[in-house]
Amino acid sequence: LSRWRRGDRVHLEPALRAGDPLDGHLVQGHVDGTGTITAIRAQGDDLLMTVALPADLARYLTPKGSVAIDGVSLTVDAGPFDRGRFTVNLIPLTLSWTTFSKARSGRVVNLEMDVLVKAARGGASWSDLPTLDKKSQSPASPAGLTLEQLLAKGFSRTRRTGKGRS
Questions:
Q1: Which long-range contacts (CB under 8 A, 24 or more apart) does 55-58 make?
Q2: Sign of dihedral through CA atoms 32, 34, 38, 43?
Q3: Phi, psi of 164 (to 5 degrees)
Q4: Alpha carbons 49 and 129: distance in angstroms, whole number
Q5: Alpha-carbon distances, residue 46 vs 27, 54, 89, 92 (angstroms)
Q6: In angstroms, rounded to a whole number, what is the distance separating the alpha carbons of residues 118 and 123?
Q7: Predicted confidence (pLDDT) per residue in 30-39, tens digit
Q8: Which residues are bridge partners to 132 per DSSP?
Q9: Strands 85-90 and 72-75: what pairing?
Q10: Cα(129)–Cα(113) distance, rounded to whole angstroms?
């Protein structure tokens, strides 16, 4: 946000609602880190944009997987993956609907890595998730929080719905 100035165009898309059809990649809207545009070259009517990124993010790249750059979900080309770089192909439709037609080498961009690849390769937060205690078959968290403790603090097993309790 520190790079934005009044009047700058930004990418904004409404959230997917439950029941809406999926038409593209799954994007959560998080920023995993930043990268830097290192090259832009024309290929016919398309632009090939190469982005350098840190190694901790590069591990989530996969050929033909997705990556969101400044909030726009794009398909990762097959290469180059070496030296912490990847390339995306910006087609004319993408160029007309986004700010990438004005992108320049050296520009810092926000990156959200492919959520499915992050899940498959085990994100850093997996160790923080509650586990199932096999002896008691009850959820146990790293802090030792139990269902009994929650009930003692006033939490209830019943759920509130729009029509009372269920």
A1: 55/84, 57/32, 57/33, 57/111, 57/113, 58/84, 58/86
A2: positive
A3: 100, -145
A4: 37
A5: 23, 26, 7, 6
A6: 6
A7: 899 999 999 9
A8: 139
A9: unpaired
A10: 20
Beta strands in the chain (DSSP E): 33-43, 46-52, 66-69, 72-75, 85-90, 108-113, 131-133, 138-140, 160-161, 164-165
Q: What confidence tens digit (pLDDT) does each residue in 83-134 have?
A: 789 999 999 999 999 999 999 999 999 999 988 888 887 755 544 444 544 4
Tell me, rounded to whole angstroms, the distance of Cα 54 from its chain centroid.
15
**Can you read off the two tokens belonging to residue 112?**
């959200």
Using DSSP's 3-state secondary structure scheme, residue 99 falls into: coil
Query: For residue 121, what are the contacts with CB-CB under 8 A and spacing of at least 6?
Result: 59, 60
Give me 93's structure tokens.
């439709």
